[in-house]
Amino acid sequence: MASYKSARLYIIGAGFAGQTLAREIKTKGIFGEVVAFLDDDPAKIGHSIEEVPVLGPIKDVARLLRMNPADEAIIAIPSASREYLRELYQILKKAGFEKIRILPGISQIIEGDAHLIQTRSIDPQDLLGRTPVAIGLKESLSYLRGKRVLVTGAGGSIGSELCRQLLSGGAQRLYLLGHGENSIYQIDRELRLLQEEGVGEKATIVPIIGDLKDDSYVDYIIGKLKVDVIFHTAAYKHVPMMEENPVAAIENNVFGTENLIKAARKYGVKRFVLISTDKAVDPVSVYGASKFLCEQLVLSASKERGAHFMVVRFGNVLGSRGSIMPLFQKQIEKGGPVTVTHPEARRWFMTIPEACSLVLKAGGVGENGKLYLLDMGEPVKIRDLAEQMIRFYGFEPDREIKIEYIGLRPGERLDERLWSEDEIPVETEYPRIRRVERKEAPLLNLQKLLDQLRPICRFKPELADQYRNKVLLRRLLHDFIPTVIIPEHEQNN
Which of helix, strand or coil describes residue 479? Predict the structure, then answer.
């Protein structure tokens, strides 16, 4: 954010959000001067708002501006479509703007709140993919008003965005649980800064460092905090890395979830929402198998009366730590090549804010014991995403920045699916949220499998030869989930 008074600021969009930002910038008096609004609305063009002229149409007037290096554009149109944002970005770049910020189109802003602290430098995820659905967050989150809400993995990309949106829910307390000190520190500080600047409501924010693998600790902390609602996002997620460390994946994802469910049931947690993944559908990787087992654990826990245990499953999100976007960005910044696994590899891509808004909505309207899918739209070729990102940074794919195909990595497949052949997606009355009905229950003795996996993850002297035995672990998973692939080098062991 420019912090010198010489900056000239152009706010793109003279609507409510743009006007709110202009007033805040004028009041603070340290971030520069708003010299003009740029807008396409004929009713606004030629007038002044808050003594700031409204110029337009944007396409015509932008090229007439005389740029200084400190000049900055702030796009303040939260309801803008992806197509319109792409058009605006190209217009502003051609006009000479080197600094372009955006007010993200999250639901809180659509409902009227807009703050300078919410603006950030525009990046590819703002321009790629489809236009997010607008969800009235304050209404969607009414079920959380006055409640104590715990987010596991709160420092991660999904967990942290859930926390940002939860600020608007009127929760009494917001517990940020994670075992990464730095990431929890960062989201804790960010949320407090947002509150200081008037974003959301005054929930008490409590950062908590802890490990879900520690059953005694999990029992203690859930009982002590008197949690009403849990959003469980914590998991090891990197597929190839978990293929190298399969025991860690099961230990953390499956047994960590089991510990959390036991404590939630013991202490009367009213709502439990598991964040799942398309990798759990007919899983081929250990990570996918771990999330499939987590789904089954949560759905089996739903048999308790008086509580809502549910699963929300979706595919890739743009810009998450486990996604390819940050990798592509670093590869482009060093001049390439950009590495793609396969020219035909496809994935779904949804923005993190949209996914989190839908998760929060589903958490309120979802029924006990149900699995929900987020409608991800059409899958996108990863190659196409790479080309779009290269162009975003001003280069020509293959001519200036090469695209290199490296082959599928362990645990990866060309296409992902959001439901299996035994599952039927059913439309709900809520946009982009589907409910999954099963043709028949999976033939899986879950408790038997967990009992067999336990000595692999937790040392037992009488079964010392099984401890950390990843060959045995993968065989057990394959026996119970036949789609799980055993690598060739393990097949003869």
Answer: helix
